[in-house]
Design a protein that fits this description.
The complex is a heterodimer of chains A (about 240) and B (about 35). With about 240 residues, chain A is α+β, with helices and mostly antiparallel strands. Chain A has 6 helices and 10 strands; from the N terminus they run E-E-H-H-H-H-E-E-E-E-E-E-H-H-E-E. Chain B is built from 3 helices and 1 strand. Classes of the chains: A alpha+beta (about 240), B mainly alpha (about 35).
Chain lengths: ~240, ~35
């Protein structure tokens, strides 16, 4: 078993790998720091900051930048514009980069022969394809320290967006105002890159996210409204512990 | 926190900062496992 906690990307990554995989985890950690160096909107000289100021072209950036921006464009299409690559008016794909980085770390571990793992990046989780079922709590956004549901399984992506940790920071791109209908929304699917980006978009949608999620294949969701009511999509119960 | 964290492997929630992590359920789970 290899456990590791790493502070990176402004948050904390927790690795729980059910193999002796020190080398693979070290490589995954290096990958996360490399991604942060390229994509940090807070570092003046990161490739993404320089690209946003038109100081360099996409062709001058590491190839991951073109890959991530293409994924962002797809997420914008998938969510009718509720996901946006420029949430504050400047280029900032952070809402997709973290989920993508977590999924890349998970793929690296699987490729290194360690597929029985849980990678948690600041509250968004990729469960590897190997091993028995994990039990993943969903933090209750209105009751600190408590959970509102438990998901069981493996080979799953679980992402939560909400206001509990950093306040009302997700804007509805169509109005420019902070989204306040929901306290949190959790999406469960298979690949964290899309599931995490969609969770941000679904939070901005508010209660309308419920119908939107039902239309997407292999995606389920649970939301806690600002009033403390809980709703979930029809298939969500198939993931919850009995 | 301990009783709940004993029954779950990890926690999904709104993205915490490095400071917010310290008091999180995930932090309690990590401390128990490291």
């Amino acid at each position: 078993v290899t456990r590791h906690v790493e502070h990176v990307m402004g948050t904390v990554f927790s690795f729980d790998v059910r193999h002796d995989a020190d080398d693979a985890v070290a490589r995954a950690v290096t990958l996360l720091h490399q991604v942060d160096t390229v994509f940090s909107p807070y570092q003046h000289d990161s490739a993404i900051s320089r690209l946003g100021r038109d100081e360099i072209d996409l062709s001058d950036c590491p190839p991951q930048v073109a890959e991530v921006l293409a994924l962002c464009r797809q997420a914008e299409k998938d969510t009718a514009g509720y996901f946006t690559t420029s949430p504050a008016g400047r280029l900032d794909p952070s809402a997709l980069v973290k989920g993508w980085a977590i999924e890349q770390a998970s793929l690296l571990l699987s490729g290194a022969g360690a597929p029985h793992h849980c990678v948690n990046g600041g509250g968004d989780i990729q469960l590897g394809p190997g091993g028995g079922p994990w039990r993943i709590g969903i933090a209750h956004p209105l009751r600190p320290g408590q959970t509102c549901a438990v998901i069981t399984g493996h080979d799953l992506a679980i992402a939560t967006s909400g206001t509990a940790e950093r306040g009302p920071h997700i804007l509805d791109p169509h109005t420019g105002a902070p989204a306040t209908t929901l306290a949190s929304i959790t999406l469960v699917g298979h690949r964290l890159t899309t599931v995490d980006a969609w969770a941000t978009a679904a939070f901005a949608m508010g209660d309308a996210a419920r119908d939107w999620i039902e239309e997407v294949d292999d995606l389920e969701g649970l939301a806690v409204t600002a009033r403390g009511e809980i709703w979930q999509t029809k298939g969500f119960a198939s993931f919850t512990a009995s | 926190l301990a009783a709940q964290s004993a029954q779950i492997d990890s926690v999904s929630g709104a993205t915490y900062t490095s400071e917010g992590y310290v008091t999180s359920l995930q932090s309690a789970i990590d401390r128990a496992g490291l």
